[in-house]
Amino acid sequence: MSNSPQIPFNKAYLTGKEALYIQDVLSGEERLSGNGKYAKACQSFFEQRYGIKKALMTTSCTHALEMCALLLDIEKGDEVIIPSYTFVSTANAFALRGAKIRFADSLSDHPNVDPKSIHSLITPKTKAIVVVHYAGYPCDMNAIMEMANEQEICVIEDAAQAIEGNYKGKALGSIGHLATFSFHETKNIQCGEGGLLAINDAEFIERAEVIWEKGTNRSAFLEGKVDHYEWVDLGSSYLPSELNTAFLYGQLEEIDNIQLKRKEVWNVYKRAFEQFSDESLKSDNSPILIQEEISNAHMFYVLFEDKESRDRAIVRLKSKGFQAVFHYQSLHRSLYFKTKYEGEELQFADYFSDCLLRLPFHHEMNEDLVFQCVESLLEI
Ligand SMILES: *Cc1c(COP(=O)(O)O)cnc(C)c1O
């Protein structure tokens, strides 16, 4: 077998509708720039399906997070609590505005942030708490919202991976004061690059539209509320082109089918694991499965006891043609941040950095491939 993996970790799924809607935009009847027919359709989809007060399409989840930092008037001296086990954008958006980032640890038994760790970091300077629903699995939002509301701190859900996820019957992204989604090609619903800002606290809506439109009141002008538009606040260029939102709408219309396919793949992985462990084929240092529920079938990952076994599994899977990948490296230990970090050791964030492995997950992972992959992983 060849040394380079033939089965990639991720493969973008196309519904076929993307090209149709892009063709519609190209017909010349519609505008090409942002906030057109398709952007509005995508926004209503989010508002109606997930109970979000106001949704605004953005060029990425990273940019939606940057909008949150602007909306909260984050400035030098403010503190923002962020999990260390997350993507760099979660922290960068606030660091860009001069905030002091206070990194929280993961739970001992899940990559999601530990509310107790958040609690220990709250000071009078805390302006925001950002949570990340890892693999679409919900953080303990009751504990986090209660703590934040008591101290009048804003909560932002980085729901980049969490579309269709829910917490006690509420859609993820509809609970925090603000939330952000990603449509990067590695996410369940994608348009190459794209994102969305979800506003659940209505107080932020008007200003968010200004920040979104380069710091102008153009949105109000387009709605006929003012007779011209001008510079009224800070802002930037956060609107995606209609080509991107048309593509995205072609995915959103098929969301139930896309999710069904992903859940099938997830269930096959689960079954493969169960079958192999039933047959007592697992060795002592076999990886463990901690996902009890499917959540939104964003990914399938396993945990090893130590980094060496995890790294060996990556090499072994590669030799069998499967591309398996680790995930975040704790941000407090990153090249950029480690010399600035003053907090305690974050042992669980570090554990997930070192020991977590994600398996190939996409629509082309059929039953045979999944079983082969799990078999190679368990070295049977
Ligand atoms: C993917 C991801 C992002 C970044 O999303 P972009 O749309 O690529 O900017 C941010 N946070 C988390 C948790 C992610 O998984």
Quick structural overview:
The chain is α/β, with parallel strands linked by helices and 380 residues long. It contains 13 helices and eleven strands.
Describe this entry's structure for a reader.
The chain is an alpha/beta fold. The chain folds into two domains: 17-250, 3-Layer(aba) Sandwich (Aspartate Aminotransferase, domain 2), CATH 3.40.640; 255-378, Aspartate Aminotransferase, domain 1, CATH 3.90.1150. The chain has 13 helices and eleven strands. The protein has helices spanning 17-26, 37-50, 61-71, 88-95, 115-121, 141-150, 205-212, 218-222, 242-252, 255-278, 307-319, 347-355, 367-378; strands at residues 54-58, 79-83, 100-104, 126-132, 154-158, 166-167, 170-171, 178-182, 195-199, 301-303, 356-358. Strands 1-9-8-5-4-2-3 form a seven-stranded mixed β-sheet, sandwiched between helices. Helix 10 crosses helix 13. It is globular. It starts with 16 loop residues before the first helix and ends with a helix. 47% of the residues are buried. The mean pLDDT is 94. Residues 60-62, 86-87, 89-90, 132, 158, 160-161, 182, 184, 195 line the site of pyridoxal-5'-phosphate. This is dTDP-4-amino-4,6-dideoxygalactose transaminase. The modification N6-(pyridoxal phosphate)lysine is found at residue 187. Keywords: Pyridoxal phosphate. GO terms for molecular function: dTDP-4-amino-4,6-dideoxygalactose transaminase activity; pyridoxal phosphate binding. The active site is at 187 (proton acceptor).
